[in-house]
Amino acid sequence: MSIVVDEIVDFIFREINEGKLFALNEKPVLDFLEKQKIILYEIYNWLSNNQVNSNSIFLFGYFNFFGIKTSKVLTGMKNLRNKDVKMLNLILLLRIKWIWN
Predict the structure, then answer these.
(1) What is the reported pTM?
(2) In this predicted model, what pLDDT tens digit does every residue of 7-53 receive, in sequence order?
């Protein structure tokens, strides 16, 4: 997965250097992830547990800055059945309670 992270970060900086991407625009990055068939939820979770080099730290910060995990990943969950959504909400509430205790 670290190779994927390196590829994403290389893409970001290559696009910025070529003037194709402004630093404050996440859409091209999301399009790149989609083209590469990278599952956003998986890469985000991996990043959250593997802050081992500058690229993973940068990309994790980039995702958090844009709220990519919270907004884009949850948007992708629209296809879940109603029962799954209720279960997910319960799990999230229990996790929040556990964090605050």
Answers:
(1) 0.64
(2) 999 988 888 788 776 656 678 888 888 898 888 888 888 888 888 89
The burial class, CB within 10 Å (0-12 / 13-18 / 19+), for 5 is buried
6, pLDDT greater than 90: yes
Helix H, strand E, coil C: the string for 51-85 is CCCHHHHHHHHHHHHHCHHHHHHHHHHHHCCHHHH
Domains of the chain: total: 1
Structural domain harbouring 23: 2-100
Q: Token pair of 28, please?
A: 């091209």
